[in-house]
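Meet today's protein:

…
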Amino acid sequence: QVRLVASGGGLVQPGGSLRLSCMTSGINFKIHPMDWYRQAPRREREWVASISSDGSTNYADSVKGRFTIFRNNARAMVYLDMSSLKSEDTAVYYCHATRQGSHYWGQGTQVTVSA
């Protein structure tokens, strides 16, 4: 059974920082690419960042230079460090994995950026 559990969201002021975490189980974590997505109210789910099994990363233009995705294979966890947060970053953030063509999603963690 594949399980992804996201945590670390909360309320933060503009310009602040947060670290999101995603704990995984049921997959051979170290061989899988991992992703973070987010979804704001009344918006489609948006891809944010990806990290490959070898550690290569890619980011959406909207977060480049502010967000960092990294992984700890020994702990089967993926993280998203967010800095210089803006109100536009307010969303539910989801971690994501794919196995044999099936998509798996964490439950989501709410990030609210507000003064």
About this structure: Residues 48 and 60 are 5 Å apart (CA to CA). The chain is about 0% helix and 55% strand. The chain has a mean pLDDT of 96.
